[in-house]
Amino acid sequence: MSETRRPGDWPRATDAEFGPPLAGDYRAAPEDFVVEEVLGFAPEGHGEHLWLWIEKRGLTTLDAVRHVARECQVSPRAVGYSGMKDRIAVTRQWLSVQLPGQPAPDNLAERLAACGVRVLEQARHPRKLKRGVHRANRFTLRITGAAVNAQLEARWAWLCRHGVPNLFGPQRFGPEGRNLARARAVLDRGWRKRDDKEGMLLSAARSYLFNELLAMRLADGSWQRLLTGDVAILDGSASQFVVEALDAELAERAERLDLHPSGVLWGVGNSMAGGEAVRFEQTLSERHAALCQGLERAGVRMARRALRMRLDQPQLEVTADVARLGFHLPRGGFATAVLRELLDHPTLTSFAQRTTPGHEPG
Which of 9, 63, 86, 188 is catalytic? Predict the structure, then answer.
């Protein structure tokens, strides 16, 4: 079967209940999209790595890394970060910089402030900050437009009750989907690291395949319930197990968002899925044979990702035609996946993006 679905055309979970959402706007200014990293632990207060709790706006995480490296006179490779944060937003996150036996440079905070990076806190730690070690991200968003109506509150309550499809956001695929188009070309001729040093193209291909599988589960209504053979993921953790036999207890745990069905991040290895659940992966491999086989040849390891994410500590305030949302998402979750369920906006279903290609809440 040919690969025909245009990225961004994936279905919404709330449309069956409420119909398509009305038009709205978000991120008209950086202050409308605030992201704060929730690390889950604190620096120990000693060690060769200086950790910086920073606030930035109008900069990508890699921009901030380069500024810190320059002001500390180290290689960017000596600077660590846990997640990538958006450019058009106000974001707070930790960076680390290796300074063995050295104090922090004089006036570091002032010099970084001149570059648009505000240092809120400094602390020492024995180790470099590694990718993906933070626990969650806290989002505070402002939306406006026709979508801010009585139905918005009903949609929000539905998402709080049932969860949000854990789609990779359109920013993963680049403006006009160019990351995905490049990934297809690179995988067709054989992936080489020199063509994709940061692995961005591999990530775009795997993300597209995951979204395709999730779209199938959305279409048949099984995205929020466990099937026999599903690999279930415990909410808020990496713990997973195969559902050999579905019983009332497991179904109830899925109902209260304690367990989530998962989908495959394609690569080499055993997906673990079986029973009813494996048919979605079989269909995926048939529909997208070139991408699947290209990822296998590239040697990327197969992994799992929850099909659904829970809105933790949700808040909604509506005044006139403005809505303010607050919620935690697990690391790797996209706030745009939440927003596309609440409002219609070109950047949520296409690639006319406001964000820098390849950058997303991490």
Answer: 86
